Amino acid sequence: MDLRFEDRVALVTGGSRGIGRATALLLAREGARVAVTYRSRAEDAAAVVAEAGDQAMAVPLDLADAASIRAAVDAVLARWGRVDLLVGNALATVGLTLWPPTPFEEQPAAEFFRANLDGPYAVAQAVVPAMRVQGFGRIVLISGTSGADGLPFGAALSTAKAALHGLTRTLAKELGPVGVLVNAVLPGTTLTEHIAALLPAEARATRERASPIRRLLGPEEVAPMIAFLGSPANTGVTGELVRVSGGL
């Protein structure tokens, strides 16, 4: 399928590794101009841009800093004059230990929520004005199955991801009339470099046994759904929470 990304501009937050990296590279292969954001991994982002080619750029962005968010979007608009697709992928693990498990009563929330609720909200607010002017836009927020199913010892993460579902459905209704489609993709446990390093062998084996396909997905298997939902080829899917989890 031709996703029709030629001359389109995509902003991928957290694009230096994992699902963001796989998505940025796929969008570049499909002909999009791609801005890859990073918070601290400048070298990793530069490597993605080098692989993506001349039509890519790396932009610093800190989800917890409103000025940083505005500056990142302004940099993309200054170079290419438009933003057609926002992939809200970045996750800031500030104040949160994903492994080993942390009991609910010991999990911090305020700093984590400021980055992972306020941050994606602010990024979407920053790109929507350009999309309104264009009469076209796609927003794909990366949530997770934990936001729909809950996750023991992951209350902060599950809460933040569930909030993205409300944002997705609200923006889909508000922005649909001006040509902007908004969806969320819900990966399950995905074997990014970060997760592979954190997840003990026993925990990984348990998740693999629970999966109908008896394995965990890699980020390159999640990226195609993000690309389709974020493409001009998607003309009618909006307000949906799309699981890409291998059946988990």
Explain how this protein is built.
- This protein has a single domain (9-244), classed as NAD(P)-binding Rossmann-like Domain (Rossmann fold), CATH 3.40.50.720.
- Strand 4, helix 4 and strand 5 (137-142) form a beta-alpha-beta unit.
- It has a 7-stranded parallel sheet with strand order 3-2-1-4-5-6-7, with helices on both faces.
- The mean pLDDT is 94.
- With 248 residues, it is of the alpha/beta class.
- It has helices at residues 18-29, 42-52, 66-80, 110-134, 145-149, 155-175, 193-198, 201-210, 219-229; strands at residues 9-12, 33-38, 56-60, 85-88, 137-142, 180-187, 241-244.
- Helix content is 47%, strand content 15%.
- Helix 1 runs parallel beside helix 2 (42-52), helix 1 (18-29) crosses helix 9 and helix 4 runs parallel beside helix 6.
List the helices and strands and how they pair.
Layout lengths: L8 E4 L5 H12 L3 E6 L3 H11 L3 E5 L5 H15 L4 E4 L21 H25 L2 E6 L2 H5 L5 H21 L4 E8 L5 H6 L2 H10 L8 H11 L11 E4 L4
Parallel strand pairs: 1-2, 1-4, 2-3, 4-5, 5-6, 6-7
Helix pairs in contact: 1-2, 1-9, 3-4, 4-6
